[in-house]
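We store sequence, tokenised fold; for instance:
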Amino acid sequence: MKNILHVIDTTGPGGAETVFLQLAEATSKSSFNSIALIRGPGWVKDQLHEMGIHTIVLDCKGSFNLAYLRQVISVIRKHDIDLIQSHLLGSNVYCSIAGLIKRIPVVATFHGEVDISPKERFKLLKLAALRLGAKKIVAVTTRIENILLSMPLLSASQITTVQNGIDLSQYSKITKPKLRSTLKLCSNTILIGAVGNIRKPKNYPLAIDVIQALHTKNYRCHLAVAGQGNDNQMMPLQEQVERLGLQTYVHFLGFTKDIRDFLSSLDLFLMTSSSEGHPLALTQAMANQLPIISTPSGVEEIVSNNVSGCISSSHSAADVATCIIGLIENKEKAQFIGNNAAEQAFESYSIEKMLNRYIEYYV
């Protein structure tokens, strides 16, 4: 039995963290012994504990922490690790160096453009580490793969795309969701939802402006956001909501464990991100047969405009609101898009398909 070390330097919750957990759990149930290496307590550690996966905690602060690298090598030696699966730039670089030193293969996954910023410090050194130490470099979209292919030092033979997958059975629509009654909304009230932690790339100020734009056209829609944020992230959004007089219409729910209930309560799913990789929330909404409205943020290879979603022509509130109104006024189109989205999700984005692709690189 191979010992596989799963490594990530964030504590979640989030899309990359969910894929990390999916791979750790799936390999532990197959012909591998899974061990997890994370940076600290939090949602990821709690989930690993529930799964019964042996977890090691090492702090990895700093742009290049030699002590952390030595500790990773020590973990590899102590647990007789045969393979490393890492996620996100920091872990990918450290694990590539450790894998090179210990002569074991590394599969390094990149989840978004933020991982491969042109302004990254010591960029060439990090790319050199990946070039020498990673057996396979995985991008979760072809857009990210193309960015990686354009970078110096990396080899095209190393780079591939494996699209994220989900357990589709967990996200099909349920008939009596609770969220509407919790928010005290009538059955004919249009509820628009967004999923994702409160951070800059999600561009929630635009989502609030979209609700305001809808209200100016007499569409009294509500917005519910499932995602956590700290006080510094939340305060500007709450001030914006108050300034626009939308306190009754915009609902920040924080971390939402029952995403299936949340999605089943919605009429429309909204993404106003400035940039995306392959957001799991999008796939979850697709599996739930939700009509999706998105800004042009990198999701175009996942959602086909006017087929499995509606992609606005710009990042302006007016353009996004126009897409939403088009679906509110044309229920047949909304249903057509929702049905196509679900069909595409079940055809392309199952967790089984994702796992099979990764396991190809593990053996």
Observations:
- The mean pLDDT is 94.
- The two ends are 11 Å apart (CA to CA).
- The first helix runs from residue 15 to 28.
